[in-house]
């Protein structure tokens, strides 16, 4: 299969626009103590994860070693150093959900999507994650896909739910 990888001027303009937003955030937080975390939040909001070339810009602008930035980025679970799929699935593994069979739901998702936990499907459509209590224990077992909450899950419901996103 022939695969053409070209950058259109629209792609470049979009990349520039994103980087401008990052630089704007850096200016906004630069003088604050502990500027790194809010800046990383902005980068993640803008890109969906923390791309290395952007972290290099952050490192230069905040005058912080890249190793320190990676240390912070990997310490906090809400930062991601790899791109995520279009739809992020969070399966709750909190006590209430676990007791009600969350593991079997997670396993079924993993089988259907053919990815391990923390994995992203080949078509980039889904990222599968296990998470702590989502605060909807009355609906256990629960998962969210993007903003949508799916409750009282059983493994056999998984294919139908995934189909809604295809
Ligand atoms: S334990 Fe799953 S929502 Fe609370």
UniProtKB/TrEMBL annotation:
<dbReference type="InterPro" id="IPR041921">
    <property type="entry name" value="NuoE_N"/>
</dbReference>
<dbReference type="InterPro" id="IPR036249">
    <property type="entry name" value="Thioredoxin-like_sf"/>
</dbReference>
<keyword id="KW-0479">Metal-binding</keyword>
<keyword id="KW-0001">2Fe-2S</keyword>
<comment type="similarity">
    <text>Belongs to the complex I 24 kDa subunit family.</text>
</comment>
<dbReference type="GO" id="GO:0016491">
    <property type="term" value="F:oxidoreductase activity"/>
</dbReference>
<keyword id="KW-0408">Iron</keyword>
<keyword id="KW-0411">Iron-sulfur</keyword>
<protein>
    <submittedName>
        <fullName>NADH-quinone oxidoreductase subunit NuoE</fullName>
        <ecNumber>1.6.5.11</ecNumber>
    </submittedName>
</protein>
<dbReference type="Pfam" id="PF01257">
    <property type="entry name" value="2Fe-2S_thioredx"/>
</dbReference>
<dbReference type="InterPro" id="IPR002023">
    <property type="entry name" value="NuoE-like"/>
</dbReference>
<dbReference type="InterPro" id="IPR042128">
    <property type="entry name" value="NuoE_dom"/>
</dbReference>
<dbReference type="InterPro" id="IPR028431">
    <property type="entry name" value="NADP_DH_HndA-like"/>
</dbReference>
<keyword id="KW-0560">Oxidoreductase</keyword>
